[in-house]
Design a protein that fits this description.
There is one protein chain. With 71 residues, this protein is mainly alpha-helical. It has four helices and no strands. Helix 1 runs antiparallel to helix 2, helix 2 runs antiparallel to helix 3 and helix 3 runs antiparallel to helix 4. It is flat, with a radius of gyration of 12 Å.
């Protein structure tokens, strides 16, 4: 069932990403970073790196933001 596992991970990642974006939009960058990190661990899509970088930048953590922008 590796294919089913991969599909489940993508679905969980999508939900975490949506939550993370909502939290980002509401200004809760700490909670947004947790959700976006979770999404990236489940499904390491390159676009998530940009969102993580933006989240840490807005959260005033420029060094952490750069780590994601450079990946």
């Amino acid at each position: 069932a590796p294919l089913a596992d991969a599909r489940a991970n993508r679905n969980q990642a999508r939900l975490a990403f949506k939550k993370g974006r909502q939290l980002f939009k509401s200004g809760d960058f700490a909670a947004a970073s947790v959700q976006l990190e979770k999404a990236y661990k489940l499904s390491p899509h390159p676009a998530l790196l940009r969102y993580l970088g933006q989240t840490y930048y807005k959260w005033n953590k420029p060094e952490k933001a750069l780590q994601y922008f450079k990946r």
